[in-house]
Amino acid sequence: MRLSFDEQTEAFRAEFVAWLEANAPDPAETAERATSSAHVPAWARRWQQAMFDAGWLVPGNPPEYGGRDATVLEQFVHQQELHRRRIYPSFNPQGLGIIAPSILAFGTEDQKQRWARRILRAELTGALGMSEPDAGSDLAGLRTRAVRDGDRFVVNGQKVWTSGAHHADVILTFVRTDPDAPKHKGISCLLIPTDTPGVTRRPFGSLISADDTDFNEVFFDDAEVPAENLVGELDQGWRVATGSLGHERAMLWLNYSDTLDDLVRTGGDALRDHRLDDDPAVLDWFGSLAIDAEAIRLLGFRALGAARKGQEAAEQSILKLFGSEAVQRSTLRVLETLGPDGLDPTRRTLPPVPPRLATTTARAGSTATSAASPEPSPAARRRSSATSSPSASSAFPDDPGDGHDDPRRAVDHRQRGQASGPRRRGSPGPRAGRLLRLVRRQGGRRRRRAVRHRPHRRDGHERRRWPARAGPGLCPLHPDVARHRRGGPHPRGRV
Amino acid sequence: VDFELTDDQLELQRVVREVAERECTAALLRAVIDGTADDTSLWKTYVGLDWPSLVVPEDHGGMGFGAVELILVLEELGRVADPTPFVATTSQLLPLVRRCGDPDQRAALLGPLLTGGTGAAAFDADVTATRAAGGWTLQGTARAVLDGDRADELAVVARTDEGPAAFVIPAAGVTATRTPAFDPTLHVADVVVEGVTVDDGRALVSSGDHGIALARAEATAGLAAVVVGASQRSFELAIAHIRDRKQFGVPIGSFQALKHMAADVYVAIERARALCQFAGLAIAEGDDRAVLAASMAKAAAGDAQRIATQHGIQFFGGLGFTWENDLHLYVRRAKAGELLLGTSAEHRRQVATEVLAR
């Protein structure tokens, strides 16, 4: 147990930070926003390629796949540095985090080159076809059918909640290939290009706005897929599926940790502004929030330790359960503390990011982790917040001077699910965006209309249903050692 | 950051658990409650195993372990609702002497602990110390002092003109009255110090506020670990029950209502345990978050005990309400620990105030 990282890991961190400072994209080129989790603007593709080519995209991968064979700890500090700067390495998180790793783990050499490498280099984007109207938490109950016919599969059925499908080039799709086998044993995994005839994608709005379209329904009508697109063995798709979700969860807790740290800072500002910082009832929940923010980090570090030993322990489930509930609880508290001020949709809990990477030191220290790096002095932190937020009297100012011109915020926005980039007049504010990364774009509306005209509802297709989402040394206190200390035989038989 | 226990620490935990489970049984606790036995032989066992020397520095003849190891041991002892003077001696008196005493004082006061000497500390005493010939005169009272009625030495944190300081008084110098407590195997006492004179050798005046704050942090984190251990035991008993108990033809633990309750308890205990170990690590490494971390640990332990005891009894249904069920032995320890050295609500406010001031 120790509170600091070892030298090797710190050297790795320093190298990455130096690279980031020299290579993060220029503000001028980052104006275009992503509108779904598979829509990657041209500048973001260039950024992802730059990271891939430098071996900084997925450091745990070999160089051939955008990495440098980094250790688990090195992978962690890499994530930490990206998170504290709100930099997203990819605007297609399913492609980067789930689809490419699944292909690298289960795919053929040809599939790795043809799909995984190109997804990692943002030449292609991917979506994940898992849920169906009647297969949500009971994923293995999926019914989309694929029938082998010579050198191809013919696919029929429907997926739903397929994030970003309307922008994706390929969908990693879980299909039933053996309807007679027990449900977990008849599933296979296919890479289905979205331009395959018979594939229809229909995006639908989130609760934020009808135009906030990331969710999709995807229909397969006699879609013909080359047999070589089978990932893993026939009928062994469940292994790929469980592996995929593992990829998704590995460092998810860093999101919770960041959000809780943000809430501690900006919630604290809100309390001061509303003169509630000596109200015992308020201090009670604020204390819990500060404790949760520390606890998630500690539990995350412990999970990291388990990961180093190759254990997939209960830690991941604890982090998910505890982290998501803590974030919900605390966000609600902060909202309620604001009273009528909380109605303003432009208010947010994410504090301004300093406009230059060079100034992120203070911010980095305060976000990160306490357990990992020295905290900046209180004065330093006040200075930093004073310079980055001129209207310090407001709890969550959305003032134009708070870094909206900062490229890194643009980089960050998709991954964090927090709109911190420039807002268009009349669009919902960053707070709304924070919830569901809404960025309006006229094209989105047109596309949606176009899709709607497709003949997606034919016999055999149900109307959209809304499935419920389920959510050794010998111990010195050993009796034998004590006996030995009093002159008895040594517990190991030696003197 | 390495937040994993080392192999040695895991081994320590394993050995202490094994011995504690074997020696400190529910039957022994019941005998202590009935007055048919006391904790003497158990304490002798610990002393015979050199346990009290765990955190005594090596240059004073101890094993020289740090706060992380102490936290691990205290959690195990909380898990068996240990009735001995171990907790107060090692996590209350000892840190005060180690952090606030000069080398001579440390040697004089720590030595006896190696052979079974016991101690207690009054961190929240209402006692004033004034200079007198050859030492100090103390006057005042202290409430709810753990082991105040039975420890050989009592360290009292008193006000002086030069700020707070700790004074170590032999048992004979104070009037201590054991007060009733719902955890009958715990000794809690009100202490009166009436014009007692403490010589300079026992006046730990050299360290000032900071040493006392750190000692208090160690005591607080230590008690938090005891609470976590007792909560853990309540949870273990409850889980064993819901695996075992069948209704409607199936174990009641297969019902989702109970699974969700169990998951909530598990998460609360893991959160508190992580914070206890973090506090131990911060104390051991001299990190400036030590005091804050100890408050976090105590607050989180309080949260954990509340849900662990409440659900723990609920899991047992009517059986949770019987004297015969051992559950209450550990529920009592968890609840009693919550009330000493600052409740979780007090520590939450303290954490909030400190974080807001940063």
- What's the order of the H and E elements of chain B? HHHHHHEEEEEEEEHEEHHHH
Q: Count of DSSP helices of chain B? A: 11
Largest sheet of chain B: 4 strands, mixed
The oligomeric state of the chains shown is: heterodimer
How do the strands line up in the largest sheet of chain A? 1-4-5-8
Instruction: Please provide the ordered H/E string of secondary-structure elements of chain A.
Output: HHHHHEEEEEEEEHHHHHHHHHH
Shape of chain A: globular
Strand arrangement, major sheet of chain B: 1-4-5-8
Radius of gyration of chain B, in angstroms, nearest whole number? 20 Å
Describe the protein's architecture and organization.
The longest helix of chain A has 29 residues, at 280-308. In chain A, a hairpin with a 2-residue loop joins strand 6 (199-206) and strand 7. Chain A has helices at residues 7-23, 42-53, 72-84, 93-106, 109-120, 237-249, 253-273, 280-308, 315-338, 360-367, 378-388, 407-416, 430-436, 442-452, 479-485; strands spanning 126-129, 145-149, 152-160, 170-176, 187-193, 199-206, 209-226, 230-231. With 495 residues, chain A is an alpha+beta fold. Helices cover 42% and strands 12% of the residues of chain A. In chain A, the strands form two sheets. A four-stranded mixed β-sheet of chain A has the order 1-4-5-8. Chain A has a four-stranded antiparallel β-sheet with strand order 2-3-7-6. Chain A is globular, with a radius of gyration of 25 Å. By secondary structure, chain B is an alpha+beta fold. Chain B is 53% helix and 16% strand. Chain B has helices at residues 7-23, 26-34, 40-48, 67-79, 86-100, 103-110, 208-244, 256-284, 290-316, 327-339, 344-357, and strands at residues 119-122, 126-132, 135-146, 153-158, 165-170, 175-178, 188-199, 203-204, 246-247, 250-251. Chain B is globular and about 80 Å long.
